[in-house]
Amino acid sequence: MGQCMSSDPDSKENNDINKTIQKDKSKDKYVKKLLFLGSGGSGKSTLFKQLRTIHGSGWSREDRMTFIDHIHAQIIEQMKLGLECIEFPGDDDDDYNAGQESEAKKQDAFAQLSSEAQQAVNVVQSVKDPKLTEEVAAACKTLWAEPAIKEIYDQRAIMKIEDSSAYFW
User: Fold this and answer.
1) Which end of the chain is flanked by fewer CB atoms within 10 Å, N or C?
2) What would the DSSP string read from start to end of 127-153?
3) For residues 98 and 90, what is the distance between their CA atoms, to the nearest angstrom?
4) Who contacts 128 (Cβ-Cβ below 8 Å, separation ≥6)?
5) CB 81 within 8 A of CB 162
6) Is 149 within 8 Å of 161 (Cβ atoms)?
7) Which DSSP helix (H) or strand (E) runs through 168?
């Protein structure tokens, strides 16, 4: 009569694949899927990251490590931007010529800062590699304590300083 079991290796492989497909289907039945639609810059990635942080497993160590360089660069970039926003004496004068800005005028602008803050300005402005060192972190902390920098932060919408800067300075 007929054979109950086929000895054909292809049919055994086919049965294994079918079993795997069935397992995957039963697991997939319990997975909820979302499709985020929207134009670029509309916040799809941000929403996904928020959902992952709140309801998911959070960020792995590797994921968190990728953010370090970006955060360091932002701290330094935002402090440099804040320093650029310190008003130069005579900025409101009609005879002020932006093309003739000199190092002396820059130093006059920073004269309102404490001597420690003036040294910190030099440290921050000399940073080429956006890696945050202890020296640069201390300089940012010193500058954040200055009333002129706090005033610039208070006017961050006009000065284009990011809201999150206060958390890192």
Assistant:
1) N
2) --S----HHHHHHHHHHHTSHHHHHHH
3) 11
4) none
5) no
6) no
7) helix 165-168
> Could you tell me the sign of the dihedral formed by the alpha carbons of 95, 98, 99, 103, in that order?
positive
pLDDT digits (tens, 9 = 90+) for 49-73: 888 888 877 778 888 888 888 888 8
In 3D space, the residue among 153, 156, 157, 133 whose CA is nearest the CA of residue 143 turns out to be 153
Q: Report the alpha-carbon angle 33-66-139, nearest 5.
A: 135
**pTM (predicted TM-score):** 0.57
Q: How far apart are CA 8 and CA 162, in angstroms?
A: 67
The pLDDT tens digits of the residues spanning 81-129 come to 888 887 654 455 444 454 455 555 555 667 777 788 888 888 888 888 8
What would the 3-class secondary structure string for 65-125 be? Answer: HHHHHHHHHHHHHHHHHHHHCCCCCCCCCCCCCHHHCCHHHHHHHHHHCCHHHHHHHHHHH
> What tokens does 98 get?
């932006």
Spatial CA neighbour of 152 closest among 103, 97, 144 = 144
Distance CA 6, CA 11 (A): 7
